[in-house]
Design brief:
alpha+beta; globular
Length: about 120
């Protein structure tokens, strides 16, 4: 169904600016260090529901996984292994998936690092 165009309303008089500026979401800031880049990446995964396994959430599992990562010159994780597990295989596997998806880390990233990955329920 096609409706005829409505006449445009007359322009409203200019309003004075609000007393308080509206809160706006800040645009993503580029990471300054490799650790900031890792945190940003893990937060992004968490926000998209790809970090904390649903089964682990349902079971109330929490823990910390210490992961050894190897990073190439382009900033990509080329290898990762659990150095110290959380006590829950599902969290250990999720930590490995998360760190293996890291790409383009800043130039200050070491070639090898121990990375703690924490799983905490909110």
């Amino acid at each position: 169904m096609i409706l005829p165009e409505q006449p445009k309303p007359a322009a409203a008089p200019a309003k004075s600016p609000p007393l308080r500026p509206e809160k706006r979401e800040k645009p993503p800031v580029a990471a300054k260090t490799w650790t900031q880049a890792v945190r940003q990446h893990l937060k992004k995964l968490d926000a998209s529901g790809q970090f904390y396994p649903e089964e682990a959430i349902a079971r109330g599992l929490e823990g910390e996984v210490l992961v050894l990562i190897i990073i190439d010159e382009s900033g990509t994780v080329t290898a990762a292994r659990v150095e110290q597990g959380s006590g829950h295989r599902i969290l250990d596997d999720a930590a490995l998936r998360a760190v293996r998806s890291l790409r383009s880390l800043p130039a200050d990233a070491p070639r090898e690092a121990l990375l703690p990955v924490r799983f905490r329920l909110r």
